[in-house]
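re: ur question from yesterday

yeah so i grabbed the chain u mentioned. its 215 aa long if i counted rite. heres the sequnce exactly as i have it in my notes:
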Amino acid sequence: MATTNPAADTDVFVHPSSIVDAHASIGPGTRIWHFCHVMSGARIGRDCSLGQNCFVASGVVIGNSVKIQNNVSLYDGVVLADHVFCGPSMVFTNVINPRSAIERRSEFLPTRVATGVTIGANATIVCGHSIGAYAFIGAGAVVVADVPEYALILGVPGRVAGWMSRTGQRLEFGPTGHAVCSETGEIYQLLDQSTVRRLESSPLQTPLVPQGATR
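ran it thru and got these C-alpha cells back, copy pasting raw so excuse formatting
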C-alpha cells in the first residue's frame, strides 16, 4: 500500500537531500535519490527509482517499476504506466505555446505514456500526445504526435523508423508481415504498415521481469 508519509515508511527510501511534500503517495520499494522534489498530491507506485535532481508535480501519476533517470521533470498532466523508462535529461513539456508574460496554467495539456515505453536520453515529448505500449523513443528525438504501440521513433521531428519488441529488440518483418523477437521468440504482426500487434499464441521464453530480479 502506498504511503502519504514516506519518511515514516521503512519500505520507501528518500535521500536526506530530497524533499517529499506531505500527502504525496509513494509505493513500497520506491527509491528517491539526491536532490529530488516530489510535490503534494503526486502519486508514485511501488518499486520505482527516481535518479538525481528529479521533479514530480502534484498532478503526476507514476505506475509501478518505473525508472526515471537523472534530471527529469514531470509536470502536471503527465501519466506514466508501469515499467516506463525515462532516460537522463529527457523532457516533458506542458504548454504548446509558452510565453513568459502570459499565464497559461489553465492550458496545460496531458501526456500519457503506456506500459513498457522507453524514452531515450535528451528526448523531448511535446505535451498533448500519447505514447503507445512498448514504444521506443530514441535519444534526442522530439515527439510531436501520438506514437503507435511498439514503434521506434527517431529524429527531429520524430518519425516511425521501425518497430521494437517488448524486450527492446528490433523487429524485422518479412514478406508475410511477421517478425520474431530475437530475445524471446515472440511473434509480431505488422498491419497496414502502421500498426503492430503481438500474437497471443506467441511463446515467451524469457519473462520480462525474471523472478527475484532487482529493479
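noticed a couple things. The chain has no helices and 25 strands. also The two ends are 19 Å apart (CA to CA).
anyway ttyl
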